[in-house]
Amino acid sequence: MNFNSIKKMQDMDLKNKKVLVRVDYNVPLKDGKVDNTKRIVATEKTIKHLLDNNCRVVLIAHLGRPKGKVCPEFSLAPVAAEVEKLFGVPVHFAKDCVGPEADKVVAETKNGEIALLENLRFHPEEEKNDTEFAKQLAKHGEIFVQEAFGTVHRAHASTSAVAQLLPSGAGYLVQKEVEFLGKALENPARPFAAVIGGAKVSDKILLLNNLLDKVNVLIIGGGMAYTFLKAKGMEIGKSLVDDTKIEEAKQVMDKAAAKGVKMLMPVDFRVAKEFSETATATDVDVIPADMESMDIGPKTEKLFADELLKCKTIFWNGPMGVFEFPNFAHGSFAIADAMIAATKNGAISIIGGGDSVNVLKKGKINQKEFSHVSTGGGASMEFVEGKELPGLVALAK
Length: 397
Ligand code: AMP
Hints:
By secondary structure, this protein is of the alpha/beta class. It is built from 16 helices and 17 strands. The relative contact order is 0.13. Adenosine monophosphate is lined by residues 198-200, 203, 222-223, 240, 293-294, 318-319, 321-322, 324, 354-355.
């Protein structure tokens, strides 16, 4: 899937239309108020474009995991006030996303105004991709716009079924995701490097295999690196390992060699005696048998950074160490710094969501320093794994 293969909202005749927009307003709440408006602000360009076209904008979203039941703590009501503040137009909140209450509120909403409908996931039919439920949602619009990249890997009524029922296009947020992730995979500026970390090898095998068909350099760090190092016969002490994945790790390394992909792995380590927030870090070249490695060491940081500075496209997913503990966050920050330096040199830098974004938060690193920080953890992973995402398939030209 690439930028040219999806339908885009700005190519549709939107003037004076009633437009149903799936947004990602899964925001943190505190004391009944929105604690962080970032996701709401992120939809500004798309919603402004619709308001500029004198559309009646009907927003649908989910919040939390109410599992198909009405749970007041997952109500989108607090979000309505923030949307109204941001756009300065009346926002009509409906206490249900389908049925007479929703129909009434949508009917009351005028062109140039916004309706926000209650949490989609209060209905079990949403996550079942139920056609009848999607038909009721589709009644709220003449056009459907998909703006919630974080949910496009799910076949839900508001991502898949509804898009079959209305003329549909991608909003600007989805377009940006597909543009950056799609281009990196299909036509990257080279050399192209992927930096993959995180804890679980099993979660990343598909990702690694798909990336090996695309990249020039594959850098492995994080807890998953120790399964690879063990597969190479190295001493890993008490470091995290998945013994059931040693063979697959070997296959990844063989595939890299066969494809001429340069593979880099840690050459030194920050180790500790126990897995604890207060553990002190010791730099070593060889992991002692009674110790656990919780981060890459300084030589590795330099090795990885030097390589990244030679690259024109960099994709990063997964921390290099236990970044939640201050003494073991340095390796992950070093990758972020190297990517920022490479970006300043003209490289395209992409952060693939999930825990890598948490690294930026922890280090108070500005997301604007990178070319693209994906908003969808699971969705961006599945995109880069080469899977077809139901919410994007539904927008295919
Ligand atoms: P994932 O969700 O697979 O991307 O993994 C993210 C988690 O990996 C984070 O919570 C890190 O603390 C953890 N992690 C990274 N490096 C290590 C390591 N060397 N040992 C144990 N856990 C790690």
